[in-house]
From TrEMBL:
Residues 49-227 form the FAD-dependent urate hydroxylase HpyO/Asp monooxygenase CreE-like FAD/NAD(P)-binding domain. This is FAD-dependent urate hydroxylase HpyO/Asp monooxygenase CreE-like FAD/NAD(P)-binding domain-containing protein. InterPro entries: FAD/NAD-bd_sf, HpyO/CreE_NAD-binding, L-asp_N-monooxygenase_NS-form. It comes from the Bacteria. It comes from Rothia koreensis. Residues 13-39 are annotated as: Disordered.
Length: 685
């Protein structure tokens, strides 16, 4: 049973309390409200410091430019300092200095850091092109200058751009934000790191590492925006490293793949790999094409010519298969639109039923997953009825009626009746859909090999290879457009749930176990998979004997001085002198490597979640002010990013979706301007 499936079984709901507004989950309003202000110094101008110059900072700067231009009374001098050892715009993750074989996993037309002109914002936004439009127009000269002209020549709106191209786009977006600042604003970029931030007479003294020739900056407010922070090893990783050293083995710990040193994986050497997601796909390319091998042909004809420098990768994971291929078509009129069941209103209705003393307003498994499941069910069968009516015996309204009937019962808290209605809807749809390949079953989508038993590794490898082949072919064929409908519905639902996460409506434990490791993982597997060509590369490497498949539920231990696999579905094992954990390290604020964050923790200026365990994040209030060890918000220290509970993690998104990230950026921009209390020119001495 998948992690989430228990949410669809009969489960008693928390007893309803008196119905009223839920303070943790306000109903949607037409535009964002302004946040409470904090005091700031205005006598000699104001200073904002961003520690981190990646996409999130760039997005906030775009919103700052828009807000400042809207309110002409904010005319006092403002200095903005951006500190990052990497080039601003992209920062460390989206830097130019990475392998050209590392691609984005969204097509170029689906990537933008700019809001649409009609976005629901209070200030007229600074708009700009999506990635595809930029490459074909204003970005061409910059790409040529960076030596990426051939990439620009090949790139179309439906291409998957190299991350180096995205790095150039984000750097250009940063420059565009600066160009739209009013004349009273000066932006300073420091290619350095901030090593310490200390209180200084009501302001903050930001100490640089000295490499940029400047030692410190006095700031009215500091924004910590370091993005994905590096994490110190957890106990399991430490133990594995120690064991590998004792036995003379090679172990490569989790990390951002572009930063991981893979040179210890030797030519011809067997390597066990745990993880079959995007980190593995990146490593696969770095260990093959980056080592001199060549892929020839396209599609099913793709073949690999080895350089002789490649290791042999034995890859396994919980699912035993790679993430689903990105779709190769877009049905006419299909887009990410408003959700029908996984909505903020429905979430608010469920939250109102919670006892006043409940730990959290909502539960991922009890409240969210049933709504997401019905969102996908209705999208799937509605698309079949609309575009392939000859394959079903119902129409769109029939499907929506089933979903609406279930939802009404579910929102009333009638758990037993809702479970029965959900099972009846499945039976109704399958009885009227003759081809089993057209049936919707989220459990099978999530775990396609579950329940299978294999007699040998040969059986495992043939099954995985066949699954990947079928996945590529189906993802390219609009005859299965219900997959695209599910994809778009899932993206829309994910946007809603991410917004709920940022509002703190889930407990820390629930968020970590059932969102971060659960729903987010499911979303990534279905909707954030690799480009189809990368899966063709995978199969070509498999045919060349350089990638081997271990199957589902793979575990690795030490035996007879080597790493060895164990898998419940196959009796055969594989041993090797090397093990590579191909994944990001789980976020853990308490294990942050960042010198600045460690100092702030040690001095009691940052507070961690109490119930998050080893995966706890930093705590902020509703206006992104960092909480100190006593739980008090700090007016002049703000935090954003993946390591911060309640922060909106996204930095760029799809065009035309009016994404929440833009409203969040505007809210943060207005919060910063309120914090420094800019005066009109006449009020500045």
């Amino acid at each position: 049973m998948s992690w989430w499936e228990s949410s669809l079984l009969l489960r008693p709901r928390t007893s309803p309390a008196s119905r009223g507004s839920c303070s943790m989950l306000p109903r949607p309003t037409p535009q964002s409200r302004r946040c409470p202000v904090a005091s700031g110094r205005t006598d000699v101008g104001s200073t904002i410091v961003f520690v981190g110059g990646g996409p999130k900072t760039t997005g906030i700067l775009l919103s700052l430019a828009a807000s400042l231009r809207q309110d002409s009374s904010r005319g006092g001098p403002l200095d903005i300092h951006v500190i990052d050892p990497y080039r601003v715009g992209g920062g460390r993750i989206w830097r130019h200095e990475q392998s050209p074989t590392l691609w984005m996993n969204s097509v170029a037309r689906d990537v933008t850091i700019f809001p649409d002109s009609d976005a629901s914002l209070s200030a007229a936004p600074v708009t700009g092109p999506d990635l595809a439009t930029w490459v074909a127009g204003e970005g061409r000269e910059e790409l040529e200058r960076r030596g990426l002209g051939p990439d620009a020549d090949r790139l179309t709106p439906t291409s998957f751009a190299p991350r180096q191209v995205q790095a150039a786009y984000l750097a250009w977006a940063f420059d565009r934000a600066i160009a739209h600042m009013p004349e009273n604003v000066r932006v300073h970029v420091h290619r350095s790191t901030a090593s310490r931030i200390v209180p200084s007479q009501g302001r903050r003294r930001v100490v640089l590492d000295g490499s940029a020739g400047e030692d410190e900056i006095i700031a009215d407010v500091v924004v910590l925006a370091q993005g994905f922070i590096e994490i110190m090893d957890d106990p399991d990783t430490t133990a594995m490293k120690s064991a590998a050293e004792r036995h003379g083995l090679t172990y490569i710990a989790p990390g951002y793949t572009a930063d991981v040193d893979l040179s210890s994986l030797l030519p011809g050497q067997d390597v066990l790999v745990r993880g079959f997601g995007l980190a593995f796909v990146d490593a696969m390319m770095m260990l093959t094409e980056d080592r001199g091998g060549v892929f020839r042909g396209k599609g099913k004809e793709t073949r690999y010519v080895p350089s002789g420098r490649e290791p042999v990768l034995w890859v396994g994971s919980r699912r035993g298969v790679p993430y689903r291929s990105k779709l190769g078509y877009l049905p006419e009129g299909m887009r990410v639109g408003p959700t029908r069941y996984m909505t903020r209103d429905n979430a608010a209705s469920l939250a109102e039923e919670r006892d006043a003393g409940a730990e959290a307003a909502l539960s991922v498994q009890d409240d969210i997953m049933p709504l997401v499941d019905m969102e996908l069910f209705v999208a799937h069968y509605s698309e079949l009825a609309y575009r392939h009516p000859e394959r079903v015996d119902f129409d769109i309204e029939d499907v929506r009626d089933k979903g609406d009937e279930w939802c009404a019962v579910f929102l009333e808290g009638r758990t037993e009746d809702a479970a029965a209605a959900r099972a009846a809807a499945d039976e109704w749809a399958r009885d009227r859909t003759p081809d089993p390949r057209d049936h919707y079953d989220l459990g099978t989508i999530d775990r396609p090999l579950r329940g299978m038993e294999f007699g040998s590794l040969t059986d495992v490898e043939n099954t995985v290879a066949q699954h990947v082949r079928q996945d590529i072919d189906r993802a390219a064929d609009p005859a299965w457009s219900q997959d695209s409908a599910r994809f778009h519905a899932l993206v829309g639902a994910y946007y809603v749930v991410r917004e709920l996460v940022s509002q703190g409506v889930f407990s820390a434990e629930d968020r970590i176990q059932n969102f971060d490791a659960g729903f987010h993982g499911l979303f990534s597997y279905i909707a954030s998979g690799p480009p189809p060509q990368r899966l063709e590369n995978l199969l070509a490497l498999h045919r060349a004997g350089l990638v081997r498949f271990l199957g589902p539920d793979t575990e690795v231990g030490l035996r007879h001085g080597r790493f060895e696999t164990t898998a419940g579905s196959c009796p055969e094992t594989v041993s090797a002198p090397s093990l590579f954990d191909a994944r990001l390290a789980r976020i853990s604020a308490e294990r942050a490597k960042d010198e600045l964050l460690r100092d702030l923790i040690d001095r009691g200026e940052l507070r961690l979640e109490n119930s998050g365990g080893a995966a706890a994040k930093f705590l902020i209030d509703a206006t992104n002010r960092a909480l100190d060890a006593s739980g008090a918000p700090q007016d002049n220290l703000l935090m954003v990013g993946p390591s911060v509970a309640g922060s909106v993690e996204e930095a760029f998104t799809r065009p035309g979706t009016d994404a929440h990230v833009f409203r969040d950026n505007e809210r943060l921009a207005q919060r910063l301007l309120a914090a420094v209390q800019l005066e009109s020119p006449a009020g500045v001495s």
